[in-house]
Amino acid sequence: MGKRLLLAGGGHGHVYVLKRLINEKMKDIEITLVSDSQTHLYSGMIAGYLEDIYDETKVTHHLKTLCHKAGVTFIEDHITKVDHHKKIVTGRHGDYPYDFLGMDLGSAGRQNPNFSSHLIHYVKPAKQIIKLKEKVSKHHYPTIAIVGGGASGMEIAFALRQTSPSSKILLFNREEKAITNFNIHSQTTALQQLGKRKIQYYAKTSIDKIEEDTLYTDKGSFTANLIICALGVTGVEVEFKGFRTDQNNFIQANSQLFIADQALALGDMIYIDKFPFITKAGVYAVHASPIYYHNLMNLVQSHNHFRHFDPPKDYLAILNTGGRTAILNHRNISHYGRIPFEIKNFIDQNFMQRKFKWRKETII
After folding, report:
1. Of 49-53, 330-334, 351-355, where does mean pLDDT reach its minimum?
2. How far apart, in whole angstroms, are the C-alpha atoms of residue 136 and residue 343?
3. Most buried of 95, 103, 204, 209, CB within 10 angstroms?
4. Which residue in 275, 53, 76 sits closest to 158, CA to CA?
5. Using CA atoms, how far apart are residues 78 and 264, in angstroms rounded to an integer?
6. In this structure, which long-range contacts are made by residues 65-68, counting pairs with CB atoms below 8 Å and at least 24 apart in sequence?
7. Whole-angstrom Cα distance, residue 232 to residue 347?
């Protein structure tokens, strides 16, 4: 029996691994990927998908197909426990032993126990976006409330304004500033565009509770027919043993992306003490993927040649504002219009369609 490498989760990083393995198959290694979904929805294109710029085929990778091409066994199961002491991953339908482990489980949407209504729709995990699109495609909602004024909530608001032009859209942010990781010029432009699109924006507004169709805030009560919650992220609901986790169930990793002996991870599910500036953004998973793949392959082949992840402290960020327009933000640079959208579209399409040729240096 060959060595067993188990890939837990189907995020950005493992899509990268599978694409590399299509042309770089490893000998004497049994590789299995366990994911609760056969598809991976690319988060960078969610707003365009909601707006009908892209259909589902353009924003998803089919994990089962990629596994087949890469010679990897695909198992559809929801992971509930990872015990590194016993080297077993447990799902709802079985146990999966391993010799080496790679994890890319992402994050879970933060929820508020005071929000209790059948009208609430959370945006995490990503496959919830597909259900949200089905809702707004089939039904008209006179008033839509979006709770969470970060980039995710704002992009959803702009997208829904395009698909629901007659709906009243409310966007609530408990913070004073919107999209705080953007510079002041981009923040100002975003607020101006919300006004032009007649999206009602409520800054510094705390929502105490939600019951039925009513949102109770420190500025009064509001009613809505659909309530979308984008409250940020927390760790996935998985029991981890043999790893160091924080209070939110994120796993500590070093700069080589190791989380324990014989185990690596990347993406939202980890934190690196050396890099406190890293946010839970897909761009970091994309940047980390080549390092993760290199170190994982060298680990299973017993090569002691590992690379360090050096994340960018600032990066090009583009906020989709609907109607094939966007705000480009980088350091002190800010630009709004169609060109930023075309740049974003090019980057996203390239990520989705990217293929790899054999590169020998990968396994040195």
Report:
1. 351-355
2. 28
3. 103
4. 53
5. 20
6. 66/15, 66/18, 66/19, 66/22, 67/18, 67/33
7. 24
